[in-house]
Amino acid sequence: MNISEAQAFVETNKFRVTDQNNYARCVDGRYMDEGMGAIAMPGADAELLVAAFATVQLLALPLSEEQVLQSVVKTVGGTRNFYFHTDDHAVSDAKEMGMGCGHIKNSIVACGDYGITEVQARYIKYALIKLSSEGARQVVLHGNHEETAVIIVDSYSWSVKPKQTLESNQVREAFVFHRTLSEKRSKELAGCLFAALGGSSTVSEGDVFLALINKMQKQLNETVSRLAKDLPVYHVQITEYGQVYMA
Q1: Domain residues for 114?
Q2: What 8-state DSSP symbol labels residue 90?
């Protein structure tokens, strides 16, 4: 996908962020339009668990696994608002929840590269099973990866769908990462983690937020290097009025 094609892709696929779609999806390009969340980040809400545990590890925060999990659940507004995904290539097994997501699978299999321990990785697998049994939403994506670019979005008001149908009926896909909304959700998570500390640490809420952002960016870079290393990367800003600026 060249830059002019990326511009047309964003112009066609942008959509307003509303209260109804203000929930997470992965950066995966295989999502269909129906029920699509605006907050596009690697791993969807499962990434909050990975980033939170990496932050706990980095800052040596005195938080239990359950406290981290409950902080993430609080951030998304309850278990039924927790979104993640698998795909139809993954093993259909209740013990392998989310393993069709390349980002989450890699964070489990190569946990050290994502800044978490093997114990934390095992707990994340357990947590996804637990959350799913309590009403969390695992979306099943279909088909093979056909993404031809990585698109990074900055906007508070607009998001971008990852799939475009051309006039020829060909389908064009991209990995879409919504940086603005992901950072907004990270800030909310930082507040929940800080509250869970209850004064038991000398770090500030700002310290927790900066560590989360740092870890999420490193984890994103790790996944891009594994799944999209040869693809062009485009940065797009979308104004309140829907004007698109590509770089």
Answers
A1: 3-246
A2: S
What is d(CA 121, CA 46) in angstroms, rounded to the nearest whole number?
12
What is the spatial distance between Cα 186 and Cα 55, in angstroms, rounded to a whole number? 11
- Residue 77 backbone phi and psi in degrees, to 5: 90, 30
The DSSP result for 149-213, as a single string, is: EEEEEE-SSEEE-SEEE-TTS-EEEEEEEEHHHHHHHHHHHHHHHHHHHTT-SS--HHHHHHHHH
DSSP 8-class letter at 30: T
For 30-82, the pLDDT digits (tens) are: 998 877 899 999 999 999 999 999 999 999 999 999 999 999 999 999 999 99
* Gap between the Cα atoms of 173 and 85, Å rounded: 17
Domains identified in the chain, total number: 1
- How many helices (H) and strands (E) in the chain? 7, 11
3-state secondary structure of 246: strand
pTM of this structure: 0.94
Collect all residues with Cβ–Cβ distance below 8 Å to 138 and sequence separation of at least 6. Answer: 84, 85, 86, 97, 98, 128, 132
